[in-house]
Amino acid sequence: MRIANAVIQVGKNLKFNLMKSILVLFSLVFVIQAHSxxxxxxxxxxxxxxxxxxxxxxxxxxxxxxSNVRITGFTVSVSHSGYIWEERSLGSRITEAQKEMFKKCLxxxxxxxxxxxxxxxxxxxxxxxxxxxxxxxxxxRLVKDPYYEEYASPNSKTDRIYAxxxxxxxxxxxxxxxxFKIKSYQPDFYYEYESKNNMLTAEMLEFFKRVFNDFxxxxxxxxxxxxxxxxxxxxxxxxxTNIILRKKEQLIKSAKFDLISLTANFNITSFRILKPGDxxxxxxxxxxSDSDKFTGEMKxxxxxxxxxxxxxxxxxxxxxxxxxxxxxxxxxxxx
Length: 335
Prior knowledge:
Layout: H1 2-36, E1 40-42, E2 50-51, H2 53-58, E3 62-64, E4 69-80, E5 83-89, H3 96-104, E6 110-120, E7 125-128, E8 131-135, E9 139-143, E10 160-164, E11 176-185, E12 190-195, H4 202-210, E13 215-223, E14 229-232, E15 235-237, E16 244-247, H5 248-253, E17 267-275, E18 285-289, H6 296-304, E19 310-318, E20 324-334
Parallel strand pairs: 2-8, 16-20
Antiparallel strand pairs: 1-3, 4-5, 4-6, 6-7, 6-8, 9-10, 11-12, 11-13, 13-14, 13-15, 17-18, 17-19, 19-20
């Protein structure tokens, strides 16, 4: 009889604990759904919005649509010319270091707000989705006509680089492009073409005829109505060459460079990753491997790159006739 009662009591306890677990699970799901609906904004701008430098600098803090929840920390990160810069805030307010990042970003570049953490009124810790804003301001476009959108493949003497006050404007009278460069990197030599106005030079037009990889028009300088010199975001030129998509995590875990399919007679002898100049270092550089294997420095660099970044590789290989060749390729990091 005692055994039977004990069994019954155990059964009741199991049933109670099961019901308790189910209630906790439903409560947790409800909390997650409720918090996922809370909107995070900066300077009243939602994710994906354009924001001016003035709004970026004058903004005070991240805000939530629910006043019962407060932010306890977040990270601001920017990807500028291939360089990743991050700064953490222990609270909801923007730090001075983060404002310096905002100033250095060029119009058209994204600013990411990540690892946003907070607590509810009952002390529950919450993690909010990341979001990003696009810095607005003067931008450059390569076009045949200032009232047309930027297009992909320049091949005409009538092509010009025009500067616009912001992403919505077509007024070219306020900002004038005074110079720009096109740079081409090869293992044994380096080409640099410069224009002292907004027109393509004869050398540039010849370069366009033989280039097969996407490239950037960079070092774009312009002046405003007060003759202040402005640096504009590089223009990405799509030559029609396919960009290889590769999962970032998979690429970092790879031991060898295996982004191209070579026959058995072809061997990769070395390769390099182009590391563009950053805030502290103006000149571009290479991270090199003297074999077909990724180095630790390469993997560290790729880890810091953002999803969507395009990485430039230069690959040396030889064929069955012991002829050395070089292949340039672009790889876009995806999730």
